[in-house]
Design goal:
There is one protein chain. Helices cover 21% and strands 30% of the residues. It has five helices and seven strands; from the N terminus they run αβαβββαβαβαβ. It has a seven-stranded mixed beta sheet with strand order 3-2-1-4-5-7-6.
Amino acid sequence: MLDLRHVSIIDAFPVYKCPKKVFTVGAGEGQIEQYLSEIGYEVTASDIQKNNSIKNLKFMTYNILEYQEMTFPIVICSQVLEHLTDYKTAFKNLIKHTEVRLIITFPYMYSFHSPDHVNFWNDSSVKIFEEMAKPYSVAISKIRTKPEDKEDGKWAFLLIIDKRQQYA
C-alpha cells in the first residue's frame, strides 16, 4: 500500500516529453516501484542488497557511493540519504545518473528517527542540496507520510531537481 510520501513522489510524474523509464535507489520493499510498473513505467529497482520481495521488476544490487556509468530519464531516491555518512557523494552520483528529473525524499530533523540515521536536515541545512544541484532547477517542499503525522509533528522533505532547467 502506498503512503502519502509515495503519493508525493508520484505527483512529480508524469515528466513532460520524457521516456517512461525510472531508476530507484533504495527500493526497500518495492512498493512505489511496483505501482509505477503497473501504470506503464519501465522500472529498474536497486538496493544495497537483494530484496526477494521485489518480483517482476528489473533489479540490481547497487551501492550509490560506488558510482557506475549509467543514466535514466527519471531517478528516485527515497529515504536513503539520512543513512549515509557520505550523503554528498551519493547526491552527486544521483545527479550523474539523472537525465531529466531527480526525486529525493528524506526526513525533516528527527521526525522519523531511527538508530541508523546519521544525517538530520532542517529548514536551513536543507539548502545545501540547492547549492550542490546548481545550475539545475530545484524545488524543495515538506510532505507528510501519513495523516497522523500532523499530530505527531513529523515531516519529510521532497526534493525535485529538473535538469532541463538550467540557471547561470
